[in-house]
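Weekly puzzle thread! Below is a chain. First person to post its structure in token form gets bragging rights.
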Amino acid sequence: MSGANHQQDVDIDLGQLFRAIWKRKGRVLAITVAAAILAYGGARLISPTYRSESRILIEQRTPTYNSGKGDQGAPGESQPLLDDLNIASQVQVLQSVDLIKQVARDLKLYEREEFDPTVKPSAISDVMVLLGLKSNPLDLAPEERVIKEFTDRLTVYQAEKSRVIGIQFSSKDPKLAAAVPNEMVRVYLSLQSGAKLDTNSEAARWLEPEIANLREKVREAEKKVADYRASADLLQTGDAATGGTFVSRQLADISTELTRVRGEKATAEARAENVRAALQDGRSLDTLTDVAGAQIIQRLKETQSQLQAQISDLSTSLLDGHPRIKGLRAQLADVRAQIEREGQKVISGFTNDAKVAQMRERQLLGQLNALKADSARAGNDTVELNALEREAAAQRQLLETYLARYREASSRIDKNATPADARIISRAVDPQEPYFPKVLPIVIVAALAGFVLSSVVIMLMELFSGRALKPVGPAVPAVVAAPIVAKRPDEEVKDAPVSLLADQPEELPAAVAQPVDAQPEEDEFSVASVAALLAARPGKIVISLSPDGDAGSAMTVALARQLGENGLHTVLLDLTGSGCPSRLMASGPKLPGITDLLQGKAAFAQTIHSDRDSTAHVIPQGNADFIGAMRASERLSMIVDALAEVYDRVVVECGPAPAHAIERVSRNREAHIVLSMPKPEERKLAKALGELSKAGYANPILLSDPDHPSLAASRAA
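Winning reply:
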């Protein structure tokens, strides 16, 4: 087909590429061996370099105080934060020039040729210097050359997510490779400890004169307080609740006494008024507790009771006019008069007590007013006194703080009391094997590089010559075009063949019906049951034969839609001659389809469309000539396999095609065969099963759902 030649895709023939490499295996092997030999020779010529490593842990070390040397440090002492910035700062300290100079002097690195490349310059280095490609090392001072070589061989790093710092050094001498990291650690710890020692010594020297000065200031401040207290007569009584002065204490005592006197006065007046009211009202004095409690009244009451008892006894035998009874009654009247006089005396006593309390109150008020004036004056003096006391307290507190810091600094002047905030956790040891070069890895990498490069060159030669390219079918579409909303086509394809797979098959004898594959008991041949069965089974390709024509094709359309509703990405390929599935699913009458794809008039992606009523996709019949498309039917199996790579289920509707034509669609014997017969007749079903059995397809799945709405839709279409 000439129309398809300009759209024919090509693919890389991997087999041809491997055959080309195998054909030139001698050349590839020679290049691989040569690369390995050259790498081995070059690695042996390189002087071995050794590397060793020391590790330190950055942590806050608690000072060890000697006995009798101060306290354990001020509670508010600030400690360095061991965060990432602090650890990074320590890494920079380990790489500082001063520390490197100290290590170089201690190990006498200036005497080693390894650290002065100008002693034995190479010819290549001299040429690069003459050409200006490299700076002249003689321009640097000897000390700077040693530092530069030292820095190039040194690696200081922080271990990930830890406070550990690693120090690596490489050298041609294994002993030196181990000695340098250990010496760096020693110098670093010495510098850290010395820095802390210098800090404490400077603090102690600065605190000594400050403490002496503060002591004099405290003495003067306390003397001012004492002098002012004496001059202002603000004598302390030791009672903080009353203000601590004599005036305030005296004022508090008089206030307390005045309150007590006023209470006694009020009590006496109340008692006198109570007795006076009882006498005026004619009440008996016996009801008054203050009167009845007097001893003389109690004795008079006893006499009155005795007289009343005698009168009662004699009244039984004597008359009222008897001299004896008259005498007793006269005595009783006299006792009552005495009781009343004694009550008046009680009232007079209460009244006198109230007057005495009132006089005492007036005296206390006079004293209180005088003390108030003294207290006001003392308050003004106390303001000045408090200011002096605050100044003295501030100077005293500062002196105590300086004394505590001085004792602490003095206790840390000892060398053993100021350890560095780091400790060694791993010392460098003499390496036994060189760090570089690793002969075996270098040889292996060089051999693999030679093999890969030679193979790549051969494959590129094959690709450029075109021998490794082969034509392929249309690619699987990556994106499917969105459906176009259109009305359902009204026209039908006329004079079209029964199916794209139709030919002139030989007559097949009637056969005994083969058993249909087992399905669910309830509605076992319905669309839902068959869809559930196909979803549960492996295998993506479903080939449907419809001996009843469009009615069976409509059932297949319903099956594809049901598979899509079950969550499977489904596409239906319309190979019928009538185009019934295309009319039921496609959104337009003239969409490109399988016939256009087979004749090369449309790309793969242009032939796949969305179903207008479900989530499934459809490849319709197309617009190209049926006869020309049938000549390329051998490409159908490749198209179906390509669709199976993209979709979960590929439903191929063949219409009333013969059974032996299934091989044109798929050579995969795992494909599911479906007989779509809405109302299967026994004779027609037996014939269809016999043809399938003869073609080698046993146990087909029967799809029969005469009440499904899709049949009515097919008749309407």
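Puzzle host: Confirmed. Bonus trivia for everyone else. The mean pLDDT is 77.
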